[in-house]
Fold this sequence. Notes:
- The chain has helices at about 35-45, 80-95, 115-120, 145-155, 160-170, 190-200, and strands at about 10-15, 30, 35, 50-55, 70, 100-105, 125-130, 135-145, 170-175.
- It is an alpha/beta fold.
- The protein has one domain (about 10-200): Alpha-Beta Complex (Spore Coat Polysaccharide Biosynthesis Protein SpsA, Chain A).
- The model is unreliable at about 1-5 and about 20 (pLDDT under 50).
- Its cofactor is Mg(2+).
Amino acid sequence: xxxxxxxxxxxxxxxxxxxxxxxxxxxxxxxxxxxxxxxxxxxxxxxxxxxxxxxxxxxxxxxxxxxxxxxxxxxxxxxxxxxxxxxxxxxxxxxxxxxxxxxxxxxxxxxxxxxxxxxxxxxxxxxxxxxxxxxxxxxxxxxxxxxxxxxxxxxxxxxxxxxxxxxxxxxxxxxxxxxxxxxxxxxxxxxxxxxxxxxxxxxxxx
Length: 206
């Protein structure tokens, strides 16, 4: 399908098992008056033409978010790359040329994330975020044309490391400041959730 002009699709990756949080959906953890996912949806929706959620299992538990859900198309929870692939496949069918993916556990995402990733990539390839010297492989812009290369890596090579694919495809690194706080901090475990709550108390505008 012909791409929809300059339109871009957004995808929140929530297809994992959240083992470090004790299972369940870590994105549904409360942070202030909202859940982590509520905050991510509110931050991402204005930045994209269409926003989807990659999740597995019963979709009813996530119905309140009001997002269409894309499940992994590969079995056995092979990791975030399977969610990216599901998003790229859907984007290709819907006519999008690019997808910005973000994790479900980063409640302080920048309001200009999409614009900066696209600006740095310049339509030439993918882009991935860096903050505090650390790469955040699940916060990235993916060109839809990479979906076949990604499928080959997952299915034929059993390559599940996001970092490996990003290096292989020459993703451009986009660096973000971490003052007064790191906008890409992840809530992976109860300690991380406590840190996020403390940050929000100190920086209500975060």
